[in-house]
């Protein structure tokens, strides 16, 4: 099968774009707030993590051959970044979730009347896992903003966020970058929403079938065009051919004026 540019174009769309994506981040219910859709508009980047099989090398026919060892590595953490508004809203949300993990309440062991307190970065007291995990969903979008692929990260929590650097020579808008730990991810390809690629041959046949039947004046047009092309070549070598070309060119001009006035044949 010969590959032409038209065949390729008919079987390929505009391509997946890295800057067409959407993110939904769900925080723990007990935290008391959620990321809103407007917050996620400031998301600048996020990753769709890969996967790899753990392997062991087995000697076979005097050569090493790796076979799966029963483990699957799905990354374990995903990076995400937000551009900061002047109130540092997104940084405040990520920091609050991060601190929520290690500020569980506890009591001093000095007796029943001892005052209660909670953990801190200096004396962290961890909550139970179910109390601080959430979910992150990343969508790849088409140009018409429909969803084409869905990545779901399960049991996520912000394990770290990066330093923000200020300086007299710094320019641009600040970003907050964070790493979210997750237990595992799964993917879904939203084929049911995908528009089928156009088959070029079917499309060509359809257009051809819709063409109106050639009328007598159109057949005359074809004959005239062929004669004009022949005379253009002959006029270079024969004066008579040049005279005929001038007469037929005049006839061609009259024909075009007729079409313009009456809408064609």
Task: Give a summary of the structure in a few sentences.
The protein is α+β, with helices and mostly antiparallel strands. Helices cover 30% and strands 30% of the residues.
Structural commentary:
The chain is α+β, with helices and mostly antiparallel strands. It folds into two domains: 5-50 and 68-193, Pnp Oxidase, Chain A (Roll), CATH 2.30.110; 212-262. It is built from seven helices and eleven strands. It has helices spanning 5-10, 37-40, 89-101, 129-132, 200-209, 216-234, 239-262; strands spanning 21-26, 43-46, 52-60, 63-73, 77-83, 105-107, 116-118, 134-141, 147-161, 175-181, 184-189. Helix 6 packs antiparallel against helix 7 (239-262). The mean pLDDT is 79.
Count of helix runs: 7
Name the structural class: alpha+beta
* Portion of residues within helices: 25-40%
Poorly predicted parts? none
Shape: extended
- Count of DSSP E strands? 11
| The top level CATH class name of the largest domain | Mainly Beta
- How many discrete domains? 2
Fraction in beta strands: 25-35%
- Characterize the largest beta sheet: strand count, sense, and whether it forms a barrel: 7 strands, antiparallel
Mean pLDDT: 79
Which sequence of SSEs, written as H and E, runs from N to C?
HEHEEEEHEEHEEEEHHH
């Amino acid at each position: 099968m010969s590959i032409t540019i038209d065949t390729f174009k008919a079987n390929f769309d505009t391509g997946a774009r890295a800057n067409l994506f959407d993110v939904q981040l769900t925080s723990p219910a007990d935290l008391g707030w959620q990321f809103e859709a407007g917050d996620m508009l400031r998301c600048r980047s996020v990753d769709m993590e890969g996967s790899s099989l753990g392997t062991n090398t087995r000697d076979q026919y005097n050569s090493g051959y790796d076979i799966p060892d029963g483990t699957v590595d799905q990354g374990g953490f995903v990076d995400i970044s937000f551009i900061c508004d002047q109130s540092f809203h997104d940084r405040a949300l990520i920091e609050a979730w991060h601190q929520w993990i290690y500020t569980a309440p506890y009591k001093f062991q000095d007796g029943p009347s001892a005052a209660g307190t909670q953990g801190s970065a200096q004396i962290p007291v961890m909550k139970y896992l179910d109390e601080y995990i959430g979910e992150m969903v990343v969508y790849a979008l088409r140009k018409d903003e429909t969803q084409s692929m869905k990545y779901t990260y399960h049991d996520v929590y912000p394990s770290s966020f990066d330093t923000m650097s200020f300086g007299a020579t710094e320019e641009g808008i600040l970003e907050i970058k964070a790493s979210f730990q997750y237990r595992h991810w799964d993917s879904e390809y939203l084929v049911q929403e995908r528009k089928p690629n156009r088959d070029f041959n079917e499309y060509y046949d359809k257009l051809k079938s819709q063409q109106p039947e050639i009328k007598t004046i159109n057949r005359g047009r074809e004959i005239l065009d062929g004669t004009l092309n022949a005379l253009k070549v002959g006029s270079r070598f024969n004066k008579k051919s040049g005279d005929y070309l001038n007469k037929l060119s005049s006839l061609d001009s009259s024909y075009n004026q007729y079409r313009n006035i009456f809408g064609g044949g």
